[in-house]
Specification:
By secondary structure, the protein is mainly α. 58% of the residues lie in helices and 10% in strands. The protein has six helices and four strands. Residues 177-184 have low confidence and may be disordered.
Length: 184
């Protein structure tokens, strides 16, 4: 029991360290995306989209159009794939945290005493009824379910033949009603 408690404490410390690392990486991604001015990736993306919309409008006119060029820092970030690298690191940390959570749950499960079975395993409906009793509301007699082939035929095309559906529809009928219909 004491070893399980120590394992649990070590697991919690490791998880806290991973969470701090995950927060640091997320803050770093956020800082790259939201830098003030033209150095932020969000702002650069917004300006590029706005510039492309203007370029589409101006494209019908003669002449040359100067496209937006991001700041050199932004180009370097995009070229090096820093965001993708940080996102992969963030996902890896998330997986490690999930693994620590699973280990923590396993430790907790080992700490709890096992429940003893309340008897032999039930393998049939008769055993179930013997142990827990029968159903209180029996199914009313006089009803039955019939299965009829569905009449749906799916149309064909030049390339494929028409085909009849394989499904069957279930109809619930009262036996007394069927007799009355037949006798009328």
């Amino acid at each position: 029991w004491r070893a399980a408690t120590m394992d649990q404490e070590m697991n919690v410390r490791a998880k806290m360290a991973k969470l701090k690392e995950q927060k640091r990486v997320a803050d770093e991604i956020n800082e790259l995306l939201t830098r003030p001015g033209e150095d932020g990736l969000n702002e650069s993306s917004r300006k590029t989209m706005k510039n492309l919309e203007v370029a589409v409008v101006v494209s019908k006119r003669p002449g040359f159009f100067e496209y937006y060029k991001p700041a050199p820092e932004v180009e370097a970030i995009q070229k090096n794939g820093e965001i993708q690298h940080l996102v992969k690191k963030l996902n890896r940390l998330g997986g490690e945290i999930a693994q620590l959570d699973a280990e923590s749950q396993n430790i907790e499960a080992m700490r709890k005493p096992l429940k003893m079975s309340s008897g032999p395993e039930l393998t049939s409906l008769a055993q179930w009824n013997a142990r827990y009793g029968t159903v209180e509301k029996p199914v009313p007699s006089g009803f039955y379910s019939g299965f009829n082939d569905a009449p749906k035929i799916y149309g064909g095309t030049e390339h494929h033949r028409a085909f009849k559906t394989q499904s069957r529809t279930m109809k619930r009928r009262a036996v007394d009603t069927m007799r009355r219909v037949v006798t009328i």
